[in-house]
Amino acid sequence: MTEARPLGADEATFIAAARSGDASRFALITERYRRELRVHCYRMLANYEDAQDLTQETFLRAWNKRESFRGDAALRTWLYRIATNACLDFLDKREDRVPVPAELPDAGFEVLYLQPYPDRMLPEDPQESVVVRETIELAFVVAVQHLPPRQRAVFILRDVLGWPASKAADALGLTTASVTSALQRARVTMREQLPDRRLDWRRPAVHELSNDERGAVKSYIDAHQRNDLDALTSLLRDDLRFAMLPEAGTLTTTARDAVDGWVSGGLFQRGHDDWRGVATMVNHMPAAALYLRTSDAPEYRLFAIAALRVVDGKIAELTGFDATDKPWLDLPPTL
């Protein structure tokens, strides 16, 4: 590592803990970086559970390599380097962690392993470059998955975290020229994947939901609770993009066809027509946690979570996730 800098308090404390072999002191020092490292791993992997595992792997590797840390770089930089390479090693071994062609014609590619990121697990006092809203939203995370792993790492380090080329090259064991070339190719792909989005990813962005977003979530929940299919249809844009993960089948559809499809699949029919909902947020996006009470159950059970992208007061993208057996979403299992 070539980042010349004076030895800071964190680095000095870390070195002392490393030399003493004091695992509890080591954990205390590194734990403060857990949330931002998990966000970093999530951008690399698009899967919250994988990100949890790789963050833990980062700390294990850091402990095993603790004697190699000399304070030439910031402790944070050193941990990000380890996390990035841990994610790359993971991706090298997992052939199922790539976008796959959609089953429906003209639907592009799907990221079936995508999971939502609960807002409560984001850093409490984040640097803007770590969790700026547009770089944690689902569309951005999906777009990043279309980059080959090393391009993905370069893009995140350079354009999201704002690292200079030399620092990113050092972290990845590449030349500065190869990092510059990889970034140029990555930017082309990101423009193709997100043609309607701005590409200045590190510019400050508003984290709070707009009135339109809050209103759309409330109306979406109300329509479910009333089984009001006309109201639900009116909330959806006619070029709605819909996915229900981890099932295949992302598609762009009309509002009426989307609702008709849900009904033909059994929703809003007897036994699947008693709903309750809770407004929440995932990926800095408005979301609705939906609970269903069936005829054989005395309570409403967590069924799914719907992340919404709202444009001009209407739902333009709806990404649904199976919410069962995911305690990290921090949603009550029953109502």
UniProtKB/TrEMBL annotation:
Q: Which PROSITE patterns does the record match to this protein?
A: SIGMA70_ECF
Any one GO biological process: response to stress
Q: Sorted alphabetically, which InterPro entries does this protein's record hold?
A: NTF2-like_dom_sf, RNA_pol_sigma-70-like, RNA_pol_sigma-70_dom, RNA_pol_sigma-G_actinobac, RNA_pol_sigma70_ECF_CS, RNA_pol_sigma70_r2, RNA_pol_sigma70_r4_t2, RNA_pol_sigma_r2
Residues annotated as domain RNA polymerase sigma-70 region: 31-94
The UniProt record lists the RNA polymerase sigma factor 70 region 4 type domain at 140-189
Any idea which UniProt keywords this protein has?
Answer: DNA-binding, Sigma factor, Transcription, Transcription regulation
Q: Which Pfam families match?
A: Sigma70_r2 (PF04542), Sigma70_r4_2 (PF08281)
Please give the Gene Ontology molecular function terms for this protein: DNA binding; sigma factor activity
Q: Which NCBIfam families match?
A: PRK08241.1 (NF006089), sigma70-ECF (TIGR02937), SigX5 (TIGR02960)
Quaternary structure, from the entry: Interacts transiently with the RNA polymerase catalytic core formed by RpoA, RpoB, RpoC and RpoZ (2 alpha, 1 beta, 1 beta' and 1 omega subunit) to form the RNA polymerase holoenzyme that can initiate transcription.
Per the similarity annotation, which family is this?
Belongs to the sigma-70 factor family. ECF subfamily.
Protein name per Swiss-Prot or TrEMBL: RNA polymerase sigma factor
Q: Which source organism does the UniProt entry give? A: Actinokineospora auranticolor
